[in-house]
């Protein structure tokens, strides 16, 4: 059994909070650069150039990529041979968020009640998803999720008879309906199967994949490729102002489900597709 003090977790999450908001991942930057020559709209090209310039300024000046520094979605893989000591595990994560958002001058975007709307003042609580896995390490991934893209997400309880085309149509229609609201070009996280709640979780988890990575199952790999083409044929374009590049990637996650069910979910992510991870 390996002991890990909560102070180490807090310090790690604090750094992740700031780094994720300052440094756009190389995979996203590369995808934007590759999209530039494929964009047919002059305005769309200019928008992509500005997005890339913004990412460079954010990196060099250590400033937030976007004024919406997001709800902190935390994904944890907790090794079963780890003993967390010195305090509360989730409390340590939230303390890291609290410190990171204060020291990093990041906007606090969380209200303590959805109807009465009083701001918590420190961007906590985070939304924490924890899986117990083999080993003696703790992997923590942060995904700061902006409201604009999150609001354009959707879940639908499809019927098994809706089949493959029903799922694909749901994904494309969700993107078309969203238009420019999620700040395209977007990453489209999709999930099919599981249960109502599992499907939504998997759609968000799909956003953690390297942008443009290929699904290990050739069936879903082909579907991702087709959906990306169909989404980019909608004409929504960068920032919703028309063009070819509506999305940089479509990532699908699938999970076993009940014989009577076929849940489907789409979790959209803006062009500021921020996430960072650390292994303790």
How would you briefly describe this protein structure?
The protein is of the alpha/beta class. The protein has helices spanning 6-22, 26-35, 42-61, 89-103, 147-150, 163-178, 196-205, 218-232, and strands at residues 2-5, 71-79, 82-85, 127-133, 138-145, 154-158, 186-194, 247-257, 262-269, 276-279.
Task: Summarize the structure in words.
The chain has 280 residues and is an alpha/beta fold. The chain contains 8 helices and 10 strands. The chain has a 4-stranded mixed beta sheet with strand order 4-2-5-10. The chain has a 4-stranded mixed beta sheet with strand order 6-9-7-8, sandwiched between helices. It has a two-stranded parallel sheet with strand order 1-3. α1 (6-22) packs across α4, α2 runs antiparallel to α3 and α6 packs parallel to α8.
Question: Could you list some keywords that capture this structure?
Answer:
280 residues; alpha/beta; four-stranded mixed sheet
Write the layout of secondary structure elements.
Layout: E1 2-5, H1 6-22, H2 26-35, H3 42-61, E2 71-79, E3 82-85, H4 89-103, E4 127-133, E5 138-145, H5 147-150, E6 154-158, H6 163-178, E7 186-194, H7 196-205, H8 218-232, E8 247-257, E9 262-269, E10 276-279
Parallel strand pairs: 1-3, 2-4, 7-8
Antiparallel strand pairs: 2-5, 5-10, 6-9, 7-9
């Amino acid at each position: 059994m390996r002991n890990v003090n909560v102070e180490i977790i807090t310090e790690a999450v604090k750094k992740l909070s700031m780094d994720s908001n300052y440094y756009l991942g190389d995979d996203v930057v590369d995808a934007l650069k590759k999209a530039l020559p494929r964009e047919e709209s002059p305005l769309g090209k200019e928008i992509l150039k500005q997005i890339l310039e913004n990412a460079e300024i954010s990196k060099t000046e250590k400033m937030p990529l976007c004024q919406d520094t997001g709800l902190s979605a935390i994904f944890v893989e907790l090794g079963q041979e780890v003993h967390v000591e010195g305090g509360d595990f989730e409390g340590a994560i939230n303390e890291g968020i609290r410190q990171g958002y204060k020291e990093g001058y990041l906007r606090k975007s969380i209200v303590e009640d959805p109807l009465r709307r009083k701001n918590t003042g420190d961007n906590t609580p985070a939304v924490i998803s924890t899986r117990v896995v083999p080993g003696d390490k703790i992997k923590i991934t942060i995904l700061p999720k902006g409201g604009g893209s999150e609001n354009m997400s959707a879940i639908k309880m499809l019927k098994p008879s809706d089949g493959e085309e029903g799922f694909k149509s749901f994904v494309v229609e969700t993107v078309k309906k969203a238009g420019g609201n999620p700040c395209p070009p977007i990453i489209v996280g999709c999930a099919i199967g599981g249960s109502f709640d599992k499907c939504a979780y998997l759609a968000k988890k799909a956003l953690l994949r390297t942008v443009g990575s290929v699904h290990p199952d050739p069936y879903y790999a082909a579907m991702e490729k087709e959906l990306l083409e169909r989404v980019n044929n909608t004409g929504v374009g960068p920032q919703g102002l028309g063009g070819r590049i509506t999305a940089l990637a479509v990532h699908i996650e699938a999970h076993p489900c009940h014989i009577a069910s076929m849940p489907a979910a789409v979790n959209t992510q803006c062009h500021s597709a921020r996430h960072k991870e650390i292994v303790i």
